[in-house]
UniProtKB/TrEMBL annotation:
GO terms for cellular component: chloroplast thylakoid lumen; photosystem II. The gene is LOC123122814. It comes from Triticum aestivum (Wheat). Residues 13-25 have a biased composition (Low complexity). Transmembrane segments: none annotated. This is Photosystem II D1 processing protein PSB27-H2, chloroplastic. One of its GO terms (biological process) is photosystem II assembly. It holds the Pfam family PSII_Pbs27.
Length: 204
């Protein structure tokens, strides 16, 4: 006995291949892992670009301000930024008398004048031995650095400031070598040293 008839294949519903026909209420499929990783990488890059933009803006403002200062200096007769860079990297410096000498020498010589003058003044001030020793130690250090760096150097050996400082240091050394390291300077020796310091300072 024949079985029941099979349903016709023409009557079965066909799956829809049109993706637009799908219901709009269904949520979109999640993006693949590679796409999610790419999107996560873009976020810090955008933040870095924003930071770079802010830095560039700040740098531009600094440049504009420097240009304004340079323009103002040029209006006042200065050399502006170019002159400032030349002065910064130039190893030489112009003295009060118009001579050009090494900056390092001028710095060392001025330090000798300052510390030695202060030590002589502290010895007269109030008889404070501790204060006098501190001033004397500072003077010894500056004199040692000056002699170690510039003694007999052809660039400065004939300069008036060098000759005057050499006289002051020689007078001080001769007195203490005879009277001892703890002796008090007499007025005539002290005045001679101060005169030499003043002469040296006039050429620095």
């Amino acid at each position: 006995m024949p079985g029941p008839p099979l349903p016709s294949t023409m009557s079965l519903p066909r799956p829809s291949r049109c993706y637009r026909c799908r219901s709009s209420s269904s949520p979109p499929p999640p993006p693949p892992p590679k796409q999610r990783a790419a999107e996560s990488k873009r976020r810090p890059i955008r933040g870095a670009r924003l930071l770079l933009t802010r830095r560039a803006l700040a740098g531009a403002m600094v440049t504009v301000a420097a240009a304004g200062r340079a323009r103002a200096a040029e209006e006042d007769g200065g050399e502006g930024v170019v002159g400032a860079f030349k002065s910064l990297f130039d190893p030489n410096e112009e003295t009060k008398g118009g001579k050009v000498l090494p900056k390092a020498y001028l710095k060392a010589a001025r330090e000798v004048v300052r510390t030695l003058r202060e030590s002589l003044g502290e010895g007269d001030a109030a008889g404070d031995s501790a204060s006098f020793r501190r001033g004397a130690d500072s003077a010894k250090t500056s004199i040692r650095e000056f002699i170690g760096g510039w003694r007999g150097q052809p660039a400065v050996a004939r300069e008036e400031s060098y000759v005057a400082l050499e006289k002051a240091i020689k007078s001080l050394a001769e007195f203490y070598s005879k009277a001892g390291p703890f002796a008090s300077l007499p007025g005539d020796v002290k005045n001679k040293i101060l005169d030499d310091l003043n002469a040296a300072e006039a050429y620095l």
